[in-house]
Design a protein that fits this description.
197 residues, alpha+beta, Alpha-D-Glucose-1,6-Bisphosphate, Chain A, domain 4, 10 strands, globular
């Protein structure tokens, strides 16, 4: 478990630090970036938020609050509190047209910065839990690497970056999106900002 949580944080830090991000959309307080590497598409959503970074961190690291701003989350329950900094959740998501509803078993690892210039981190990845086998009514999907980095800008504002390395399990939600025919990433980002503020 210690290795899993370490690699969860490390994978997100590595993804965030990659060179070659292309900006695809820039609004007042939301920027959307993509990064392609072989068959792997990653995206980053950068949000300017008028709350202190520690407040954004405490709200975003509690995934039971996620349904309040992310309409892709239908249900979210804590399966296991591994430690103060790690929890395992079972998440179900609403069905997209022509697709079965999906479910995920995810490990959420949270870390406070060790040094002032470092970000707060909330890393997410899929794990396998024997107690929660795949169910026929859901299509079990996998999150390779996702999560938030929260950088403090001032005592009352921060920049929240959401990252997701996209697998075929998440693609239906994004395909329409990145081509610009749907605004779901933008809308979700704006809901997130509204929720945090």
């Amino acid at each position: 478990q210690a290795y899993l949580s370490y690699s969860n944080i490390a994978a997100l830090t590595h993804l965030a630090g990659k060179p070659g991000w292309d900006i695809t959309k820039s609004l007042d307080n939301v920027k959307i970036w993509t990064h392609e590497e072989g068959a792997v598409l990653s995206f980053k959503v950068e949000m300017q938020v008028k709350v202190p970074s520690h407040v954004a961190f405490s709200l975003l690291s509690d995934f039971s609050l996620r349904q309040r701003w992310d309409r892709h989350f239908l249900t979210c329950e804590v399966l296991q509190a591994v430690s103060e900094e790690e929890k395992i959740y079972h998440v179900t998501s609403a069905p997209m047209t022509g697709h079965q509803p999906r479910d995920f078993v995810i490990l959420v690892s949270q870390r406070q910065p060790c040094r002032p210039q470092e970000p707060y981190t909330v890393a997410v990845r899929s794990v396998t839990l024997r107690a929660v086998p795949p169910r026929p009514e859901f299509c079990r999907s996998e999150i390779l690497c996702a999560g938030f980095q929260i950088h403090s800008d001032s005592s009352s504002s921060c920049t929240v970056c959401y990252f997701n390395q996209v697998t075929s399990g998440v693609t239906p939600y994004l395909a329409a999106n990145l081509t610009g025919s749907s605004k779901s990433i933008e809308d979700t980002a704006l809901e997130c900002i509204k929720f945090l503020e």
